[in-house]
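pipeline: protein-struct stage 2 | run 1193 | Holliday junction branch migration protein RuvA
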Amino acid sequence: MIAYINGDVAEITEQSIILETNGVGYELVCPNPYRFQVKVGDKQKIYTYHYVREDAQILYGFQDQDERALFQQILNVSGIGPKGALAVLATTSVRDFVVAIEQEDEKFLTSFPGVGKKTARQMILDLKGKLPFDYQAEEMLQQTETTQQSNQALNEAMEALKALGYSESEIKKIKPVLIKEHSDAADTYIRKALALLSL
């Protein structure tokens, strides 16, 4: 397998770039060839994936190893071929895609060309927990910390409302609205609660 090619970006088309090395021009089909527009004439290291089928052999080119690895992973999804995998990589980052898979964000996944709800569910089924990246762990940790801070602030606000003389039933009635505030400051919840309770 050809892991990468070092060469000069000689030409850009709608679907590919031509990378010239030692007098040979390699056509590399890329997620978004125009990323390399400013690199025309410059030497670049492009990571490649050699796709072979009965009627064709195609070299795909990627900016880095993570992008190539994700392309290979998406190819493993039932019903998605190289064209669909390229469309995903052309419109999002590796990090954002991985986080969407781990969080089962169907709305994000169906924003890609040719991806409906059924395909989005298949992506989640085939890829969740199997992507070799650390982005999801980092994102989940940040979200967990934010949620914990928000919960603590909300609890503090609930206690403050009780101290102000509001009953459990009054507080329970407005709690669903307060939860949507997603704040890490008890004062924010208290102000919102007082406004609701005065209605």
